[in-house]
Design brief:
The chain is an alpha+beta fold. Helices cover 16% and strands 35% of the residues. A hairpin with a 2-residue loop joins strand 7 (102-106) and strand 8. The relative contact order is 0.26.
């Protein structure tokens, strides 16, 4: 599985998302997010990512629906929709991280570390970056995230 991936959450790209299937509409999972933190931040932890490390804030768990999707290039990706009762909370959280990094973690490992360009509320797409994901990568990540929350 590729380690370098990007999360794309711009409203203009939501048109690229496929809709979740009926089987996925009742399935929620908790997705772990952590914002980039300074060394003096309470609860900041160091995580390895690619060839270096990054300091991240305490975990924020957001209830999401996950589904296979495509990114803006038509490559396999993971779509996620934030639960209705957490959208404002997620929006406030991402807004507070504007121009900083936002990590998505699975099994305690960073799977993506994009820069937040603005408020995100409804959800987004986790894509495989320039090289993209395979369908197998997408299915494995979704299964791993769902298994972690059972």
């Amino acid at each position: 599985m590729k380690t370098l991936i990007t999360i794309v959450c711009a409203l203009a790209l939501f048109a690229c998302q496929s809709s979740p299937s009926d089987a996925d509409t009742d399935t929620y999972a908790m997705l772990e997010f952590r914002g980039e933190a300074s060394s003096d931040a309470v609860g900041a932890q160091e995580f390895k990512f690619e060839e270096g490390s990054v300091l991240l804030s305490e975990a924020k768990y957001i209830k999401v629906k996950l589904y296979s999707s495509v990114d803006s290039l038509g490559l396999p990706a993971i779509g996620f929709t934030v639960a209705d009762n957490q959208r404002e909370n997620f929006g406030d959280y991402t807004e507070s991280l504007k121009n900083r990094k936002l990590a998505v973690l699975v099994d305690g490992k960073i799977i993506t570390l994009p820069q937040v360009l603005g408020r995100l509320e409804n959800g987004g797409i986790i894509s495989g970056g320039r090289e993209g994901f395979t369908e197998e990568d997408v299915n494995e990540l979704i299964a791993s995230i769902r298994a972690e929350t059972k």
